[in-house]
């Protein structure tokens, strides 16, 4: 029985030993395999990424100062308008109570004015005969003028309710909404037949449309807090527009918000970027875009992958392979990095080979 166990056990032990020796030998060979990377010349750009979209620098919301119903629209989305061009015709649509009150106010003002005018005429006649004092006449004259103004105001209000048109202090007031700026119609927010709430001191009013100058577009976006400390005004920017993949636009950093805000769990700062020159590019408001804000840029410098540099508190070192294949450690002075490549200021020459060891494998028996 013992002999049988030995006959079975010895081959198993031998197999385990051989497999272990082969694994150790293979591991040693893998650790001895080196790749080399040549020191090259190139450029490095340290940049911060801003994510946002193309927007007009200023948008103007058009609102009405009279209530009513949209009777007619004179423009459509995309149309160019000038200052004073007609945009909407608003038909007054008073409630029965509003119309009745306005009508009665006119009638009451007419009755009052008639009575005051008769009193004024009588007082004027008595003044001409020197039967009353000048002070008493001036009091009646003031009552007459005030009554006349109240009648004019009541009639103007009724005219606006009835037709939407009137004339106040030599100024025509009508129900035609005109363009306050020269620009492009970006959006139409109402259609014919829609009700309109007027803009007053107590309510914002109905937004009828938005206008903007399309030759004054900017990039508005956000940058992460980790990069904002490196940003200063007028930094150059390369803008990549999603809808125009083959057309980049140059710009410069115009504004960085002094206050952060939270966005999707991250802390970001708002930035604005102006375009240097649009040229032949036709941009639309709302295009999504990425802006690469150039913080620093070095050209015609020595580069190696940053992963080949061992950085400690006091020095940076690389492993260099000479023409005979001998590997030696060498101190280097590094410069600008973009996270992939790093600048070599001192310690290496163009064309030298820097060794790259394969990553060490983690084995269960280590």
Average pLDDT confidence is: 82
> How does CATH name the architecture of the domain at 48-56 and 215-298?
Beta Barrel
Q: Output the CATH homologous superfamily of the domain at 48-56 and 215-298.
A: Efflux pump adaptor protein, beta barrel domain
Q: Please state the overall shape, judged from the principal axes of the Cα atoms.
A: rod-shaped
First and last CA, distance: 37 Å
In the sheet with the most strands, the strands line up as 2-13-16-15-14-17
What percent of residues adopt helix (DSSP H or I)? Answer: 25-40%
How many distinct beta strands? 22
Number of helices: 4
Percent of residues in beta strands: 35-45%
Highest CATH level, the class of the domain at 48-56 and 215-298: Mainly Beta
The Rg value, from CA coordinates, equals: 42 Å
Taking pLDDT < 50 over at least 5 consecutive residues as the criterion, the unreliable ranges are 1-7, 13-19, 22-31
**H/E element string?**
HEEEEEEHHEEEEEEEHEEEEEEEEE
The helix-and-strand class reads: alpha+beta
By CATH, the topology of the domain at 48-56 and 215-298 is Elongation Factor Tu (Ef-tu), domain 3
Largest sheet, strands/sense/barrel? 6 strands, antiparallel, barrel
């Amino acid at each position: 029985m013992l002999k049988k166990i030995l006959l079975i056990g010895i081959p198993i032990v031998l197999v385990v030993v051989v497999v272990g020796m082969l694994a150790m030998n293979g591991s040693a060979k893998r650790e001895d395999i080196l790749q080399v990377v040549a020191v090259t010349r190139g450029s490095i750009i340290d940049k911060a990424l801003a994510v946002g979209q193309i927007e007009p620098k200023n948008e103007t919301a058009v609102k009405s100062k009279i209530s009513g119903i949209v009777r007619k629209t004179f423009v459509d989305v995309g149309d160019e308008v000038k200052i004073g061009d007609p945009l909407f015709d608003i038909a007054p649509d008073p409630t029965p109570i509003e119309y009745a009150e306005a009508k009665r106010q006119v009638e009451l003002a007419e009755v009052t004015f008639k009575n005051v005018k008769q009193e004024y005429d009588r007082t004027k006649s008595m003044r001409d005969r020197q039967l009353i004092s000048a002070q008493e006449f001036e009091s009646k004259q003031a009552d007459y003028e005030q009554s006349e103004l109240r009648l004019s105001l009541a009639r103007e209000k009724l005219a606006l309710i009835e037709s939407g048109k009137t004339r106040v202090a030599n100024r025509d007031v009508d129900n035609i909404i005109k363009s306050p700026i020269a620009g492009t119609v970006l959006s139409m927010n109402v259609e014919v037949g829609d009700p309109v709430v007027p803009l007053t001191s107590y309510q914002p009013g109905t937004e009828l449309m938005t206008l903007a100058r399309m030759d004054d577009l900017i990039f508005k976006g956000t940058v992460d807090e980790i990069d904002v400390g490196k940003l200063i005004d007028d930094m150059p920017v390369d803008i990549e527009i999603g809808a125009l993949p083959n057309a980049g636009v140059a710009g410069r950093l115009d504004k960085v918000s002094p206050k952060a805000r939270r966005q999707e769990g991250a802390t970001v700062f708002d930035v604005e970027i102006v375009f240097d020159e649009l040229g032949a590019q036709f941009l639309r408001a709302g295009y999504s875009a990425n802006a690469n804000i150039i913080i620093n840029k070095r050209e015609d410098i020595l580069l190696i992958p940053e992963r080949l540099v061992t950085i400690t508190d006091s020095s940076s070192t690389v492993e260099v392979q000479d023409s005979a294949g001998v590997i030696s450690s060498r101190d280097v002075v590094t410069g600008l990095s973009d996270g992939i490549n790093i600048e070599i200021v001192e310690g290496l020459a163009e064309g030298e080979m820097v060794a790259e060891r394969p990553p060490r494998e983690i084995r269960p028996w280590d």
